[in-house]
Automatic annotation (TrEMBL):
Name used for this protein in its record: GNAT family N-acetyltransferase
InterPro entries: Acyl_CoA_acyltransferase, GNAT_dom
Superkingdom classification of source: Bacteria
SUPFAM superfamilies: Acyl-CoA N-acyltransferases (Nat)
N-acetyltransferase domain location: 7-158
Signal peptide, first to last residue: none
Gene source species: Calothrix parietina FACHB-288
Length: 291
């Protein structure tokens, strides 16, 4: 193993993106399409992520990416480093390449951030580097909502009007929770949510990341300059809803009888390195902000 440094630059090397995604598709099939969706929506992977890549004979064999995310944690704005898209080609695993890249990433990040986060289904890969699993919760509310108006329409992000609307609200949004929330972030949001349905209520000037399963509403994020009560969200859904499952701390939704349960989202756990003031609280990092 040579002693080359691993930090790369998409701006300096235009061919770097293709080499990287050739690697990432092996570990994360379909990620190239999600990244392309983000580019089309106006927030490119290449502009947001700092790549650390180990090359062997011109081929990218191991990568760790760093993206900067503005969080709100316990009501305080904190700039956090997000570790993402960690991948090594199968034939080069268990040879020290990932460790070498990660050690340089941590040396880089420790100069910039007091807190690093990542989400993963394989926490054992990160425990040796000082990351720890932080427990998360989902929140459930029982209700009997029939809705009185059809107040949510699905955004069409192929139109300039709806795309401008989404950019405006992402730029001006308040955190969905003051326990753990995110503001003024686009690239991670677009990768996670850009290919999923997004719904807009004009009178609330709010975008909801939500899904309805039979009589259950799954609420993943709200992008707005004001977080409205849950009752205002429900009244604009013209069908019977008997349970709401919320994937973020719901203290701003002004609703009662909320039950919290330990849980995960998409089979991933949240891992943290460094300070994290909300560690003992009941919360979940929204799906839209997970990297």
């Amino acid at each position: 193993m040579n002693c080359d440094r691993f930090q790369q630059s998409f701006a300096v090397d235009p061919s770097l993106s293709g080499k990287l995604f050739d690697l990432l598709e092996i570990t994360f099939p379909g990620l190239s399409s999600l990244a392309e969706c983000g580019r089309k929506l106006g927030a490119s992977w290449e502009a947001a992520s700092t790549p650390f890549i180990y090359f062997h004979e011109g081929i990218a064999i191991s990568h760790v990416g760093v993206v900067e995310i503005p969080f709100y944690i316990m009501g305080k704005r904190v700039t956090v480093g997000g570790i993402h898209a960690v991948a090594t080609r199968p034939e080069f695993r268990r040879k020290g390449y990932y460790r070498a890249v990660m050690n340089e990433v941590l040396e880089y990040c420790d100069k910039l951030y007091e807190t690093l986060v990542l989400s993963t289904s394989q926490p054992e890969f990160y425990l040796p580097f000082g990351f720890r699993v932080v427990a998360e919760h989902i929140f459930k509310v029982q209700c009997n909502s029939t809705g009185s108006t059809d107040g949510w329409r699905q955004l069409d992000l192929t139109t300039d009007k709806d795309l401008r609307l989404l950019h405006r609200l992402l730029e001006t949004r308040v955190p969905v929770s003051n326990v753990v929330g995110v503001v003024q972030e686009k690239a991670v949001f677009f990768v996670n949510e850009g290919s999923r349905p997004l719904y807009y209520a004009a009178d609330l000037d709010a975008i909801a990341c939500m899904e309805i399963e039979d009589t259950r509403l799954h609420l993943f994020d709200i992008v707005s300059t004001n977080i409205h009560p849950l009752s205002e969200i429900l009244v604009r859904i013209p069908q019977f809803i008997e349970e709401v499952v919320i994937y973020f701390s719901p203290e701003l939704l002004n609703t009662e009888n909320v039950q919290a349960f330990p849980g995960v989202i998409e089979e991933t756990v949240l891992m943290v390195r460094g300070k994290f003031a909300a560690e003992k609280e009941k919360f979940m990092l929204p799906r839209s902000a997970r990297c």
